[in-house]
Structure formats: structure tokens, C-alpha cells
Amino acid sequence: MENNTSYTCSGLTSKDENITVSADKPLVINDNITCKEGNEIRIEKGGTLTLGGDLDLSGDLYVEGKLIIEEDATISGSGIIHVVNSFDDIDCKGTVTAKIDAPEPVEIDGVTYVGGILLVNKEYSLPREFGTDIGDIRPELRQAIEQMRADTGFGMTLRPSSGYRSYATQEWWFNYYCETDGYENAITYSARSGHSEHQTGYAADITKTELDYADTEEGKWLAANCYKYGCIIRYPADKVDITGYVYEPWHIRYLGKSTAKLVHDSGLCLEEFLEVDRTN
Length: 280
Hints:
The chain has 280 residues and is of the alpha/beta class.
């Protein structure tokens, strides 16, 4: 570990090449520093590292405790940020372009999570009964949409045209599209029952489900700004081969502000960011 000046660890000055941040030794870095290849920073469970400067990461950063990236801070370089448990352990207000290594998928009661993020796609599904106790989009997503509407200030509609869908509702719609458009076409734009993000309550279609929405003032604003409110455009135009779905400029997925910013800064779709596949 090299730094241009010094950094403070519980009031102590250190220039160690490998740094361990523990519960009794929180670390605050306000200067620009470099972590060389072969070196590491390790935030243990209960430890907190607050980054106020720029970190040139060529080594490894292990996040088991809390990583706080302040608004003017950046983490860049060829190194890797290893998220040990959950993306909730990162509070990102700054910019991260270094690679993020996600934890392995974990299945709980038939539901798959990656670093605390609920994952649904063509490979990972939900049980039939999941979401029946919700019956609507989650309060976090609703609040994000309402805040976007309040902040735009130029007469946007920006309302969910479709929010929560139960397993049974998605089953009906998918069967309908298969009957009217054929399975091979339907599967490119509609999810099989149990494989729809709408069943999670964390997804919503905004305003209208038409491709020209991307060219509207509202659609352009949504694409450029929704991450600031904790959402991502879930099925981007340049990631069709990875997500398995056609471009949907209207479909947003709520991840929380910090994680949405990490995904946005990475330039990746959710499958790439979480390092998972969709195979059918």
C-alpha cells in the first residue's frame, strides 16, 4: 500500500502494505492512495473503512464489514473489490469503476439471492406463492418513483403502468402471448411464470411499454437518472444476448441507491454485475 501523504487509522499513522480494518480500528482515508498488485485491504466483520479520497486499486479489497465511499471519492484500477457477504455492506455515493466480485448465489426457501440482491431471470425462478403477501410494488420502489416524479419538474407522467404481478397472472399473460405470437417470439419479451421480476415487487413498467418510449424526453431522463433513485434499466439495448429479453426502456428494477450506482458505474447489466448466467 502506498499513499501520497498518510491516512488515519484510529488516530494512528500507518504505511503498511497490507491493511486490516477491524471493529476496534476503523479506518478513515481522506487522501489519494494506491494499493499495489499483490497487496490487500481487508475490512473485517464489524470494521468500517471510510474513503474520502481516490483509491487506485491494483490489489484486492475484501469487504466483510462496512465500506463507505464518500461523494467525491473514487475507486479505480485493475484490482478487485470482493463483496464477502452483502452489497448492503457498501455505501457508495462516489464512483467505482474497479471490478466487483460478487458472492456466490444463495437459495433461501426457493428464492435466489446474490449478495442480498433477489435474483429472478430466465434461469432463476420464484415459488408460486412468493409475493402473495405483497400484492403491490414494494414501498421502496413506490417512494423512488414518486420522488422521480417530484424532482423532474416538467410535467412527466412517470407512473407505473404495470407493477406487481402474481405467479398466476404472469402465467396467464405468458400463455396468451404464446397463443397469439408463438412461443419463440413470446419468450423474448415475456417471462414464464415464476421467472418475472414483477413477482418480486421490486420491478415496474413506467408510463408505456412501447419501444419509442426510449426516444421521449421522459424515457431519456429515466435512463440517465433512475440510478440516483435506486433503480436500473433492467433490460438494456446492448445486453439482449445476456439478459435474454428485448430492450425494455420502460422496465426499472429497484436495488437501492448504493447498489444501483455501483451497477450504473460498472456499465454492466445485472447478470454481468452479479456474475451469474441465464441459460434458457
